[in-house]
Amino acid sequence: MNTFECGCKTNGTIIEYCSKHQAAGDMYEALKEITELAPRDKLRLPYAIQVVKIADEALAKAKPKED
Ligand SMILES: [Zn+2]
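^ thats the input. predicted complex w/ zinc ion below
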């Protein structure tokens, strides 16, 4: 069994996810929901703009690479 720094483990065939990576799908959906709910044309507070920007950037990292 190989253990990664985050806590994920694999024996080469089966991956046993750490709690963070186990929750990745849920976190992805939550961020998507946040960015979809944000009234982009009405965001005025720098804080709100920053929150949506951070969420957008995190979602972009999860996008499959096109080559
Ligand atoms: Zn992990």
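The chain has one domain: 2-61.
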